[in-house]
Write a structure and sequence with these properties.
This protein is mostly helical and 320 residues long. The chain contains eight helices and no strands. Helix 1 crosses helix 6, helix 4 runs antiparallel to helix 5 and helix 5 runs antiparallel to helix 6.
Length: 320
């Protein structure tokens, strides 16, 4: 999907991977083209945001009011996916309008198309899982229940793990701009909560509990998103309003062996060792142009015949 063959999953999937739907979900919904997290603190904030976003999308009142029902849970998830299918492109389009002075859309075309593919793929998986659940619930044939039921359980694990992945990377939008995932999470959580506040639909809860449960998740998501974007701005100079093409590339993590032990000392290792062999040919050159025989045994300092030119006249002993 992205460039070369195997670049979407990084070539990690095999036939045996199908036995572990969580591994397939990790490879499919967190593709290889999504950039890695910059530091553990940002990653920890992202995890808290994922939890709060799940509460905002599914609604804690679903479990309090009527108990846990897989069909109702999937219907709420499908509603959230439909909202995301329209809201995500609109939000990204608004940011492209903000970024118009710093660069062009063409520079971001590949990453935007990959994010759209990931969004459509996840929405399709949720829709397929909902159809499987309804088929099992509405069928009385044992073969259909067993066959479709096994597929449904595989899809349920696959989609659940995929939901956690896409909630963290928010459909790979970090490949376009690292501030897009927290921004989209904030916008989505508020859009899911505002209609209930406007219509007064508290789902059977009292006024106080209804407002608390409706506003708690989006307020939490907003606070975590602001912390995440603030940390990206302070530590790495990544600003939401800046076009991704104008953001300086963030240096990658230095391998542990290449890190210096002390701030003022260069790291030890092969980059600082002298080159092996003798890159200058003869050790001290040949200023007289006399041909020299190749040395044996790989010793560049072995004695050479006639290292200096012979005088043109014979030498006489002293006193001769």
């Amino acid at each position: 999907m992205a460039g070369t063959r195997g670049s979407w999953t990084g070539g990690t999937l095999t036939a045996r991977s199908l036995l572990k739907p969580q591994d397939v979900a990790r490879a499919v919904f967190h593709p290889a083209w999504i950039p890695q997290s910059l530091d553990p603190s940002v990653e920890q904030l992202k995890r808290f945001r994922v939890i709060a976003g799940a509460v905002a999308s599914l609604g804690v009142y679903t479990f309090i009011e009527g108990g846990f029902q897989i069909t109702e849970l999937l219907e709420n998830a499908m509603t959230a996916c439909v909202v995301l299918l329209f809201l995500t492109p609109l939000t990204v389009g608004a940011m492209l309008f903000v970024w118009r002075r710093g660069g062009t859309v063409r520079q971001l075309r590949v990453s935007l198309l990959n994010s759209l593919k990931l969004l459509v793929l996840f929405v399709g998986c949720v829709a397929a899982l909902l159809v499987l659940v309804q088929t099992v619930n509405g069928s009385a044939h044992p073969a259909v229940i067993i066959g479709v039921g096994v597929t449904m359980m595989w899809m349920l694990i696959f989609t659940a793990y995929g939901a956690v992945r896409v909630s963290g990377n928010f459909f790979g939008t970090a490949a376009t701009h690292r501030c897009l995932p927290p921004l989209l999470a904030t916008v989505t959580s508020w859009l899911m909560a505002v209609p209930d506040l406007v219509t007064g639909d508290l789902h059977g809860l009292s006024l106080t509990l209804g407002i608390v449960f409706i506003l708690a998740a989006p307020v939490t998501v907003t606070g975590i998103a602001l912390l995440e974007m603030g940390r990206l701005k302070r530590r790495y100079g990544i600003r939401l309003k800046a076009h991704p093409a104008t953001v300086a590339p963030v240096p990658g993590h230095v391998p542990p062996m290449a890190q210096p032990m002390h701030p003022g000392m260069p790291p030890a290792g092969s980059p600082y060792l002298p080159p092996q062999g003798n890159p200058y040919g003869q050790p001290y050159g040949n200023p007289y142009g006399v041909p020299q025989q190749p040395t044996g045994g790989g010793n560049p300092y072995a004695p050479h015949p006639h290292p200096h030119p012979q005088p043109p006249y014979p030498q006489r002993p002293y006193g001769g």
